[in-house]
Amino acid sequence: MQWPAAIVRPVQRRFTVETIDYNLKGETLSGIAALIRSDWRAPYFGAVPYLSALGTLRDIGDAYGADTARDVVLYFLSNATTWRGPTARAVKAELKRRLSLK
Asked: Could you tell me which residues are beta bridge partners of residue 68?
């Protein structure tokens, strides 16, 4: 039995990777939180409180209630594993870089 040519023909898919240049080094944590909100359409419920907390912070030395900004960033990164894409990679890399500075 022969299959019709339309079924046998391999599917060709083209994947393009967007290269976006993000300059997040001078951005405040609240500015990064705004970028996250604009890119992550349906945030994971566990990340939402930490994303809200990030929106009130300026830098890694600030405090949010009894938590340090460092703790908030760590908790956010722990709960943001479902957020993917070029923006997510750039933001997560910047947050990890800030954690390693202090």
From this structure: 63
